[in-house]
């Protein structure tokens, strides 16, 4: 599949929208022909703001010691990080999607029961990250639902075989879905952590961790990841199609419908995920 940058995606989507609008307007005029230069159409640019890897309290990129990649920021995260997302949403009049990882919100160490879900496996101990910041951040999320959308990203972000971190939580490096029983357990944990922290009902949107995902059936599975998620109420997925398994199955190129779940190509990021304070860029 041809790779597109996010800028190209935006440009092409705008042209597509303008083309569709023009043909509709012409059709509405029946047999009177209307020249394109008589038409004036304003098409909103389809931009969705998605912020990945929200939810960590540690900022450390731990991949070199079998821990998750995390945000790579040189400090711990704080409730003000959540307020910043809300402020962005208020200023732009939108609901940014916060693609969320919840393992460091585990107040009761329930993740000990699922060894594939964290780097500590049965010895999981999250006491370090249990403190007033949980309630403070949860309050910000709960009180700003019009400008903050909590999106499912993952619980531990990766998948642990024995002591070894492997990419990633929902699919392997080829995009093939993890064993179904493990996927369901991880989703159960995400829901329990939402409940522990009163963060609301299960999200309706999903961003696969490490963008490892398959469109439709993968491997020997009889059910797609999208259908697994659909059963929990998810109806929207966004991920770059350039490394999505079975991307050719997306019926409309830039997006496809997978078990009634719309799956959108988010294009390629202009910067690596851990680049900070970079001056950007051409327009
Ligand atoms: Zn991520």
Q: Assign an overall shape.
A: globular
- The total number of structural domains is 2
Secondary-structure element order, N to C: HEHEHEEEHEHEEE
Q: List the uncertain runs.
A: 15-32
Q: What share of the residues does DSSP label as strand, in percent?
A: 5-15%
Bound molecules: zinc ion
Named at the architecture level, the CATH assignment of the largest domain is Alpha-Beta Barrel
Count the strands?
9
- Number of helical runs? 5
CATH class of the largest domain: Alpha Beta
Order of strands across the biggest sheet?
6-7-9-8
What would you say this structure looks like, in words?
It contains 5 helices and 9 strands. Strands 6-7-9-8 form a 4-stranded mixed β-sheet. A 3-stranded parallel β-sheet has the order 1-2-3. Strands 4-5 form a two-stranded antiparallel sheet. It is globular and about 70 Å long. It folds into 2 domains: 1-47; 48-265, TIM Barrel. α2 (79-92) runs parallel beside α3 (132-142). 25% of the residues lie in helices and 13% in strands. It has helices at residues 6-28, 79-92, 132-142, 180-196, 225-230, and strands at residues 50-54, 97-101, 149-154, 159-161, 164-166, 205-206, 236-239, 255-258, 261-265. It is of the alpha/beta class and 283 residues long. The model is unreliable at 15-32 (pLDDT under 50). Bound molecules: zinc ion. Residues 52-53, 153, 157, 209 line the site of zinc ion (ZN). Zinc ion (ZN) binds at residues 52-53, 153, 157, 209.
